[in-house]
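User: Okay, second chain of the day. Same drill as before: sequence in, structure tokens out.
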Amino acid sequence: RNIITREEAESLISEHNQVVIKPANDNGFGKGVELVKKGDLKILGSSKKNYLIQELIHQHPSLAALNESSVNVVRVVTMFLGGKVFHLSSAFRFGEKGEFVDNGKGMTVVGIDENGKLREKGYSSNGTTSVKNHSGIAFKGYEIPKYKEMVDIALKQHSKFPQIKIIGWDFTVDDKENVVVVEYNIKYPGVLYYQWVNGPLFGEKTEEILDEIKKLPKSEGFFKL
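Assistant: Same drill. Structure tokens below.
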């Protein structure tokens, strides 16, 4: 949280062969995200907009196998209610061949079962289905590395934000097998794609969750995140 000059920022960026630059405003769906090579900072221009600048993630081979051009993520959705944190849903998301972002127009979302393995069917952003990726790898039974660790991290960290009822966490695993929190989503944690692949978001806890919601003060505004 230390303010630095533009010159200092450019010097830090120049230490890396490539960096990822994201607009700090809430675009969503990978809009405005750029992969910038060393020395090429024209994207910043003379703009006074705020940007997030991050090191490039080199993902685990098992995740790259489904699409190597994008950093593919596991979306873990958690919920805080009644003094407890619940794991609601998990899905794997990857981009179209050649795409840099995983959540663009060509993204595919596949549900993850309780054992950390992909379900049989994937859904694209327009609702079409598939059972294999573009290189012929079948989804069903494909194991996601470090899955349990991702869920454990999401549950533990959500307990620190009891005022936020639902969070959509995006994880990946790097080439050294470290779990990486890419981001967490508190404004739009996602429902549609994740219900396509896993069924109703609240699942077996639907009745329990609805009962808890009824107990909340009307002023709390449960879905006002």
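The helical segments are 6-13, 61-64, 147-158, 192-198, 206-215.

User: Thanks, on to the next one.
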